[in-house]
Amino acid sequence: MDSIAAEGTGLAFVVFTEAILKFPFPPAWSVLFFLMLLSLGLGSMFGTLEGVITSLNDSHLITVTKPVLTAVLCASACLIGLLFSTRAGQYWVALFDSFAGSYALMCVAFFEVIAVVYVYGYRRFSRDIEFMTGSTPGQYWLITWRFVAPIIMAVLFTCSVVQCFSKATTYYAYDRETTKQKETEYPIWAMFIALLMVLLAILPTFSVWFLRYFKIWKLEADIPACFQIDLFVTRDINK
């Protein structure tokens, strides 16, 4: 079996499928395995969409009702997903998997930690947790939030960027002559698409700060719970 199949989507649809054939009564195991994949995919999509929908509803940036917003987001995701069902779908999956799920996530996670710990303040964040849970975070969590997590994410992101630019980014494409997978460099236009995906993912991190700092657009959400926590923190600080 080609070792290339042991990574990416080939791990689920090639390697595990080949292994299931060695089990007793393979059809039953195949049904259970792919039902598990379907359940995991649906569960992940529910969580992802609910996070986006709830955030947009609570912020009041969009005035449409929740069912309409859900339908629009699901339809948009379905249209984008059609790209992965084409004949070149596996190559698009490889492109998205290589860039959208690595650089952007690490960059956003790093700035989230910086925003919470150093902009909002780890002391205020600890008081918020105490208000909601009744217990104060220990020194382990404070040290991890302030030093360990930012350093680790910065190192990982830097290493990923250095590795990306130290050698050409490649993917595996089918070669008709050898009937095998061949390592191929991404074309220039594909790298521009990858860069656009990363920039679009991290754009809100800077755009929200820009809009708030220069008072271009009011982005305050009218959520009573936030004001209650803020009042509690203010009283606690004044003490």
TrEMBL record:
Annotated GO MF terms: amino acid:sodium symporter activity; L-amino acid transmembrane transporter activity; metal ion binding
Record's bilayer topology term: Multi-pass membrane protein
Record GO biological process: amino acid import across plasma membrane
Coiled coil location: none
Transmembrane parts of this sequence: 31-56, 68-88, 100-122, 143-168, 188-211
Binding site for Na(+) 1: 40
Location in or out of the cell: Membrane
Protein name in the entry: Sodium:neurotransmitter symporter family protein
Species: Ancylostoma duodenale
